[in-house]
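User: Predict the complex with iron/sulfur cluster.
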Amino acid sequence: MENESLNLPNYNIPEDMRDVVAVTTLDRLYNWGRRSSLWPLTFGLACCAIEMIAAQMARYDMARFGMEVMRPTPRQADMILISGTVTKKMLPAIIRLYNQMPEPKYVVAMGACASGGGPFKEGYNVVAGIDKFLPVDVYIPGCPPTPQALIAGLIKLQEKIDKQSLKKARWYQKGKEDPNYVPMPILGPDLIDVRRSEEFKKAAAVKEGA
Ligand code: SF4
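Assistant: Here is the predicted structure with iron/sulfur cluster placed in the model:
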């Protein structure tokens, strides 16, 4: 980023000092660092993952955005790209990976399957969108989205990060329970979201009473 864009808008820096002085805020500085080094988790689910891999190759080269360091461990990853069909059997593993990522962390739903189930939406074994469980920051349409579409989505994520503030960002709020902690779903004959257990109990009681 050029000094000019790091400076606060309209801050009047004398002409002869513009090459050596930058005046900015902590928010802008932190956001700049965070958005310029988003390390994705090495993780793919289905055909969309092939496009994600293509986006990392020389032709598209996500290194231009500081996103080339795909991490093999969630402990070092900043974002998880849900690239493919989310099956009920796979979901507990995805939630575990997400919970193991340190804040700040971001979720990108890549393609029709991750965003809403895609062509397999009615499948008995498919979760109709990862946003039923994880807080998605950016949705990327397509089946599959092209590498260009993925990069456009990641630029949207960068723009979202640009607007974050230290005062409001959830990972800086002391003493508050993490609102994004997702309890592990239970995989039985079907997938059970334990956050909805009260709802299920009430529905069962109504059914028994009927
Ligand atoms: S959205 Fe299309 S390309 Fe992507 S995982 Fe689903 S079926 Fe495959």
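The chain has a mean pLDDT of 89.
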